[in-house]
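Here is the promised in-class demo. Please do not try to memorize the tokens; focus on the logic of going from shape to residues.
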């Protein structure tokens, strides 16, 4: 993709990886639109980066997703990059009383939202790039977050099919495959010991500049190319 002069919508663009992408795309001379559920957090980003355009949207809601697309199509029809980044992660056990409720939330945000938004935003005639944020856990699951891992495996599979279906069009499909990073995903403090988002962002932008469409970093690089034997080794190491 061209790294500059785009208009980019990033779901969940106010925190974590989404914020890292927002900051870097701004540096590369792009116009960035971010959406999220918490208006106060969106406003904090806009105060720091006045060029950022914000939109309150709960991507778990089908009605909100449709409203978001209609708002973009009306007010920012030149949007040409969609980044499906928003996601939630719940640490839970199948025996928990609220397991299904939490699982449903993850499925709505991590699966239903990106496939619905992709379908909607392909209606924009100028759409040139779709970026889906999956995970190294799409390849090797961590059993304490079983549904999260499964949603990312789903999105990985969907991304491969999407790239194949769109290969004859002008829309490029890029998969961002992060490992665990120092964010609040899953809860504050859980990932404090993991690599900084800034290091991850620097690496994937180098890969984007090189024309790659599957972007890895750290441990996700090895998992993305693992065979069945090495996947079993990863699984046993992660799930003792």
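The designed amino acids, position by position:
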């Amino acid at each position: 993709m061209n790294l500059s002069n785009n208009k980019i919508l990033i779901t969940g663009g106010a925190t974590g990886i989404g914020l890292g992408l927002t900051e870097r795309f701004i540096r590369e001379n792009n116009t960035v639109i971010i959406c999220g559920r918490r208006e106060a957090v969106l406003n904090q980003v806009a105060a720091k980066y006045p060029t950022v355009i914000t939109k309150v949207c709960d991507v778990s809601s089908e009605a909100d997703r449709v409203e978001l697309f209609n708002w973009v199509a009306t007010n920012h029809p030149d949007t040409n990059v969609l980044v499906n980044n928003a996601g939630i992660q719940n640490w839970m056990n199948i025996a928990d009383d609220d397991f299904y409720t939490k699982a449903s939330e993850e499925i709505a945000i991590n699966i239903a939202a990106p496939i619905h938004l992709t379908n909607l935003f392909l209606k924009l005639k100028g759409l040139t790039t779709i970026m889906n944020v999956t995970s190294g856990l799409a390849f090797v699951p961590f059993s304490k977050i079983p549904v999260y891992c499964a949603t990312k495996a789903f999105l990985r599979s969907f991304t491969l099919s999407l790239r194949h279906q769109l290969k004859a069009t002008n829309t490029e499909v890029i998969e961002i495959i992060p490992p665990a990073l120092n964010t609040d995903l899953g809860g504050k403090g859980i990932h404090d010991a993991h690599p900084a988002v800034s290091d991850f962002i620097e690496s994937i932008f180098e890969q984007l500049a090189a024309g790659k469409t599957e972007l890895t970093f750290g441990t996700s690089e090895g998992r993305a190319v693992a065979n069945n034997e090495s996947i079993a080794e990863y699984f046993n190491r992660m799930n003792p």
